[in-house]
UniProtKB/TrEMBL annotation:
It holds the Pfam family CobW_C. It comes from the Bacteria. It catalyses: GTP + H2O = GDP + phosphate + H(+). GO terms for molecular function: hydrolase activity; nucleotide binding. InterPro entries: CobW-likC_sf, CobW-like_C, CobW/HypB/UreG_nucleotide-bd, P-loop_NTPase, Zinc-reg_GTPase_activator. CDD domains: CobW-like. This is GTPase, G3E family. The lineage of its organism: Bacteria, Pseudomonadati, Pseudomonadota, Alphaproteobacteria, Hyphomicrobiales. It comes from Bradyrhizobium shewense. One of its GO terms (cellular component) is cytoplasm. Residues 214-306 form the CobW C-terminal domain.
Length: 309
């Protein structure tokens, strides 16, 4: 029996990982295999973890999760040979990936027969200005979508969802638009009941030249950082950032690790697990458009966050 694929796309920080986390944590007896670009980004509750082998983490609810390393088709082939075989496969794309290229790969006749692309879900932060939909990458992500999920409605003003729905309708897309509060989407929309029905091949459109648009910059420190100084630093960096996330220990709360996220102009902090041994106390990854932020500028701003610096 073929194993249907759910492809999850969306721009940096839109909330894709929250959606995938919710799907895996509320599998309702389904055996779901999730392929994600950044394995560390998946934050399944600790009680769901059963064990790991060969880069695959088994979840106690019967699901599994693995990172996308190398060729997508090879990763899919490996999952399809597992026993028991998954009933559904979820692929979370990178926030800077053009999903049309992935759709094109999934139209391979062998993959289409064994693991047909059933649904494409595009995740959009409801608080994003509607003008952001003019971006060519976001347009490409929307163009291939069957379902558009509006996330972070609790962080947006009251009319944000309605404005985004109107902007999406103006694009005359066939996609269904749904609210996804806290990453929750009706499972009936995402997992078809009749998996024996093979979906029709999709036309991803003409292949576009690859465009290197974003770069990743990292900053680490073996010393705790000052939280007020970090807030000042992020305020200075925010206009140049597309996304940032990391782990750090503060001088105000020694021995306690914090999880930092920055997306769509908003920064959030949450308590993390105990710091791991043998790694820097602070590890933050910043994503910016090419040439907008230099490593020297980033280091200069962030070094000022170090306690006693």
């Amino acid at each position: 029996m073929p194993v249907p694929i759910l492809l999850v796309t969306g721009f940096l920080g839109a909330g894709k990982t929250t959606v995938v986390n919710h799907l895996l944590a509320h599998a309702e007896g389904r055996r779901i295999a999730a392929i994600v670009n950044d394995f560390g980004a998946i934050n399944i509750d600790a009680e769901l973890i059963a064990g790991a082998s060969d880069g695959v983490v088994s979840l106690a609810n019967g699901c599994i999760c693995c990172s996308l390393e190398g060729d997508l088709l090879r990763t899919l082939s490996t999952l399809l040979r597992r026993e028991p075989k998954p009933e559904h496969i979820v692929i979370e794309t990178s926030g800077v990936a053009d999903p049309a290229d992935i759709v094109r790969n999934l139209m391979d006749p062998v993959i289409l027969r064994e693991a047909p692309l059933e649904t494409v879900l595009c995740v959009i932060d409801a608080a994003t200005p509607s003008t952001a939909l003019e971006d060519s990458l976001q347009r490409s992500q929307l163009r291939v979508a069957d379902i558009v999920a509006l996330t972070k409605l609790d962080l947006a003003d009251e009319g944000a969802g309605a404005r985004m729905r109107q902007a999406i309708r103006a694009l005359r897309l066939p996609a269904v638009v749904v609210d996804a509060r806290h990453g929750e989407i009706p499972s009936a929309l995402l997992f078809p009941a009749n998996v024996e029905r093979a979906p029709a091949p999709r036309d991803p459109g003409p292949k576009r030249p690859a465009e290197e648009r974003f770069e990743t910059l990292s900053w680490t420190s073996d010393r705790p950082i000052s939280l007020p100084r970090l807030q000042q630093a992020i305020g200075r960096l925010a206009p140049k950032l597309a996304r940032a996330k990391g782990l750090f220990e503060t001088v105000e709360q020694p021995g306690r690790q914090m999880v930092f996220q920055f997306a769509a102009g908003r920064a959030t902090l949450a308590p993390g697990d105990a710091p791991a041994a043998g790694v820097p106390r602070t590890r933050i990854v910043f994503i910016a458009e090419l040439g907008v932020l230099s490593k020297a500028e980033l280091d200069g701003i962030m070094e000022a966050c170090v306690a006693g610096g």
